[in-house]
């Protein structure tokens, strides 16, 4: 379940950067 955590973290970071 590491890939999921990394993907989630990356998605969150991307979303924060996008906003």
Task: Give a verbal description of the structure.
- The structure is a single chain.
- The protein has 19 residues and is mainly alpha-helical.
- It contains 1 helix and no strands.
Please give the largest β-sheet.
Answer: none
Query: Mean pLDDT score, rounded?
Result: 77
Poorly predicted runs of 5 or more residues: none
The string of secondary-structure elements, in order, is H
Strand share of the residues? under 5%
Kindly report the oligomeric state of this protein: single chain
Portion of residues within helices: over 70%
How many DSSP H or I helices?
Answer: 1
**Class by helix and strand content?**
mainly alpha
Number of strands: 0
Describe this structure in a few short sentences.
The chain is mainly α. It has one helix at 2-18.
Which key phrases capture this entry?
1 helix, rod-shaped, single chain, 19 residues, mainly alpha
Topology, element by element:
Elements lengths: L1 H17 L1
